[in-house]
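Worked example

This section walks through a single chain of length 499. The input is the sequence exactly as stored; nothing has been trimmed or padded.
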Amino acid sequence: MNGRPLPCSREELGSLFLFEKLAPDQIARLCQEGRVEEFAPGPVYGEGDDATCFYVLLEGSIVLSRRIGDYDVEITRSSDRGVYAGAFQAYLGDRLRQVYNSSLRVIGPAPARFFVLPAETFAAIMREWFPMAVHLLEGLFFGAKSTQEAVGQRERLLALGSLSAGLTHELNNPATAAVRATSALRERVAGMRHKLGIIAARPYRRDSLETLIDVQERTAERVAKATALSPLEASDREDTLSDWLDDHGIGDGWQLAPIFVQAGLDTDWLDQIAAVVDEDTLEGAMRWLNYTVETELLMNEIEESTNRVSALVTAAKQYSQLDRAPHQVADVHELLDSTLLMVSAKIGPRITVVKDYDRGLPRIPAYPSELNQVWTNLIDNAVSAMNSTDADGTLTVRTARDGDHLLVEFRDTGPGVPEEIRDRVFDPFFTTKPVGEGTGLGLDISWRIVVNKHRGDLRFHSVPGDTRFQVRLPLASADGDADSATATASPADSAPEPS
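Given that input, the structure is written out below as tokens.
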């Protein structure tokens, strides 16, 4: 897209930080081979188009954005003279496909002026004026690209391995319980068939059988309504039921009593059964009811186990955001719960998780899968910090409203962030974890997701025993002309004041 041509001023070019060290003849060559153009508010070039020009802002305001899925995500905006974009990697030549890696547009209301240099001219000038710098930049570019690919792949593999191990551990417990309960249920059903054969072989009266079936149905209904008892209450009731069974001539009552207690049966219920069942069939009826109760309890256990598996699968889908649009209106609490469930194996028994949620908070526009990555990184760092000490720890996850932002805070009781490294915690590749346990990209990635992509804020406050990482996310989508100071600030600028 071409703008309106304007005269090129050598003085104006020389006043830019990008060109201030150039000689007068070099400035003159730039003016001769380049041009000044004015662009009205709107697009200047699009991501993926052939990179034909190098743009330097002289006046106005611009926004750079990247295409992610079906959405354009703003990565930066600026009105600083001298900022540049476009074909700034033209010096790499045909070793890199020369396309624009972002979209540039002018934001109003005023137009913007650019110094525009053709890509071929920019590449030739770089090689002619700065040959050593070009070699260094080439090595830096391709070296950094290889390093980031290797480290990024390892980071993803580590995260995938950790989450897979945690999910496998969580799935194993209910799956094992379901298998165990199914095996026990098979034995109980076989026992019921055996008892049914005994009943059929003996001369029970029809009304006695009808009464027994009625008692069986009412007992099954009672199992479904049973309430949990404390260990002391359960022990006392087992003793009472065991004595009742012994008094009524039922052998091994101590084996039947715990099952009846678990089902919510008491002596009053057993008295009702004894009142409607003949004395010579009471013991058989009790053992028949025991099979009924055990069968119901085992089916409840299987149902709970399979529900647990289903909940874990749902949490995994929520965490990974499978089959969902990348950008959507999301409930932060659902994202937090799914992440905590996915990393629960890593948290371990020594760390207590406290949820302090403000459930009245609205849903917010966000990229849920990427926010889950932020939660994972912050939780992982908090857990690692608390595990570095011998004491048990507490992880508190709090949500609250903070003006026109939603606050998510992760507080841990670890040793805190040392004063001498606080200004480096968001730097890429900086880590305090042992070799092989961290790549130093977690907080850098989190910063980019929260600040650059969601136009939010990420900061921390730390003293020994109380470290808090705070994420602030806009409650509503920012409009195109909104101030973006938080999106272009550095992590150090957003560090909180000590309290």
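What to look for: The radius of gyration is 35 Å.
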